[in-house]
Design brief:
The complex is a heterodimer of chains A (417) and B (469). Chain A has 417 residues and is mostly helical. Chain A has 13 helices and three strands, in the order ααααααααααααββαβ. Chain A has a two-stranded antiparallel sheet. With 469 residues, chain B is an alpha/beta fold. Chain B has a six-stranded mixed sheet, sandwiched between helices. A five-stranded mixed sheet of chain B has the order 16-15-19-17-18. Chain B has a two-stranded antiparallel sheet with strand order 4-5. In chain B, helix 4 crosses helix 5 and helix 7 packs antiparallel against helix 8. The chains are: A mainly alpha (417), B alpha/beta (469). At the A-B interface, helix 1, helix 2, helix 5, helix 6 and helix 7 of A face helix 1, helix 2, helix 5, strand 13 and strand 14 of B.
Chain lengths: 417, 469
Amino acid sequence: MDADRNYQRRFFNTKILKFIVISILLFIVLFALATSAVYGAWLGLQSADLENETTAKTAEALYIAEQYSLAILDYEAGDYILAEQRLEYVLNEDPNYPSAIEKLTAVKQILYATATPTTPPPSPTPTSTPDLRPIYELYDQAEREFLLGDWDAVLTTITALRNLDLQYQVVKVDAMLYQALRHRGVDKIRNQSNLEGGIFDLALAEKFAPLDAEASNWRNLARLYMIGLGFWEVYPEQAVYYFQQVASASPYLLDSSGWTARERYRAVLTQYADQLMAAEEWCEAEEYYWLALSIRSEISIEERRSFVSIKCSPPTATPAPITETPTPTFTIVVDASPTATSTVGVVVTPTPTEVYLSPTPTSLPAETETAVPSATPLPSPTETPIEVPLPTDTPAPSETPLPTESSKTTPAVTPRS
Amino acid sequence: MRIVRTIIIVVLILLVVAAAAALVGWGAYRYTRNMSSAIPEVVSGFEPIVPERTTTPGAGDESVFDYQSSTNVNQTQSAPTLTPWDGAGRVTILVLGLDYRDWSTDRDYSRSDTMILLTLDPLTRTAGILSIPRDLWVSIPQFKHGKINTAYYLGDAYKLPGGGAGLAVETVEELLGVPINYYAQIDFGAFVDFIDEIGGVKLDVTEPITIDLLGSGSATKKNLQAGVQVLPGEWALAYARARNTDGGDFDRAARQQQVIIGIRDRILSVDLLSTLIGKADVLYQQLSSGIHTNINLSDAIKLAIVASQVKEKDIQQGIIGKEQVLFGKSPDGLSILIPITDDIHLLRDQIFASSGVLSPQTPGNAQERVQAEAANVSIINQSNDPALGQQTADHLESLGMHIVSVSPGEQYATVSSVITDLSTPYTLSYIVNLIDIVQYRIKADSDVSQDENIILFLGIDWERDNSLP
């Protein structure tokens, strides 16, 4: 019995031992596998991160180098604005990029050699997360920014303030918004070449109250400019109509591409004259070439003008003296000894006062003459500020002057109790 | 002998285990490495393109540089970085879809085929959608005038710092004047995947239409009958791309907006938003290869939550359509749409300026707002009626204005006018409407007086036609 029992015990112990050993082995195997997997994964992650970082850095460096190379090409091609843009990008990404700062300086010297210094408009300082400072602090800050005329900052601060409390000092905040939007809108049009941005700001301001004459005039100028731009290269006769008004009132109004109203006007005059020349309307074409040349002379335009001039008034054996002027603003001088190759003996000399030329109303294409195939009427000329005085550098608000200071400070004031 | 055998077996087992462990480790290494590696975008080489760059008049040619130099141009011509969203104010996103013809032929650069501006005002929970037709004739910054759909192409082809999306954003900003915070260029595949992920989109097809699924051949043509139906991703994409109805591109823009609203409704109707947000990071990873955007995941989730709270009646929808354009031909004979600036402004203002944090928030009607301002007003009577000044003063005072003084003018005036320091807009608005003062008779002067906000000059027009009690 004892032997049997001992055998059974031994057998049982051996089985347990085997089970334990196998379990341990299995555990070791699984542990090894798991450890390997985890370690492998960790190494993989590390390696991928390192590779990603290296790849990103390499790609970024390549991209910056490419932008720099393109900037050099732009510079050599005379496209200084794009070169400037690319170099600024390069320096923003890598301030120590070799030679970039020198090249940017050179570009800026060329670009702004004749520029008049202006104070750059304040840049917005947006935050990526809502500002959680106390409301009153934001309100005080908005007031300070308002006094400094930092309109971008005022609008950003008020947005943060209203995110916390829409009704805090609501009357005063609305008044600040009205003024900030009005001033920023005018500033965008007048100083920042952002015509549409300015028009939009003024539209926002107008939700509070009507615009004053000055703001309204600037908006109207920007609006006329944008309407004219819509017809660019497509319907030059329409573009002439709109740019003529803008160029007369504010010749140096700039758009974002660096064109002035005056240059746009000159270009559309040329485009229209080219179109008339193609239609063999020689005399009218000459008239528009003259208008363009009176703004700035250019050999190619002068050649075309000469050509249409010959076509308009072919030389005769006994040239008759010209008694009629093509436009009221030109002085006509008749050459006494014309030659066959001359411009039919007519030399038109723009007078020094012809800076802002106005084509005679009869010479301009009427609105109804447009070939635009649409039932939608074109913007009505009556909406243009013909009745309203257009702003000069410091736009006057009205043609009929508002009451003067003297009338404001009239002696017979009746104080109210 | 037995011991030796046992040792050999153990060593073999250990070797197998080690090999297996190494294999597993290597596998894990490769897997995680591949999963975490970003595939760098292949930058294709530069190729010359047809459209010409504009030359700023005078630049590079000092002899003709006789006009005022572009003093401030650099502000708008810096690298096209988008206006960052401040997290509170209005946020605007330009959604771009590329031209399938360019995309399917594997061209290096694509034109944009779809341009939709989405705008959302988190504070007032209002939103807007504006579709811009691809043939719109616009000024493209740095380039000549062209169709708006070429902006994306040019930005990419010329490798501008902001790429195609950057130039497209700049172009739209210049067209409309509204700041754009984000862009999202969505590939066809990503669009289809997303629609399928939300279980299709329910649309009311108003007229039978033939749609063309992606691919080629007649098998891709499908007929959709009129009626409400749930379309899977591929069909929804084809429906949004179809332009074979009478209205052409304008109808297509309307269908695209219908799909956008349909997606919104689908997400809200089955409360998918929380599910989608729950797996947003996975979804983001899945779709990220097909959506090129500068919206980060955190802002995307924030915007999705806010967008879900906008009621349908508070979504303004607009299309730059037939009423806002003229049909024309470009110099090279292409069909183009010439913008009617004033009408586009009206549409833009309706969508972007009618509400929001920068709009009037003072409660009440016009009179209550005037009372809240309690403006100081002086009146100068330039009419023929000596009593008109006082009568007007009494009326304005009854409305809540503080009348500082009433005095006769030194001269008569035929029309009424006003000088304002701009600090009391509601009072100004009320007076201008009451007296019917024309815009060019409103003068802004910040130094009116310390005690006055508005000086009102009454003219003979007010004497002849007034509504005083």
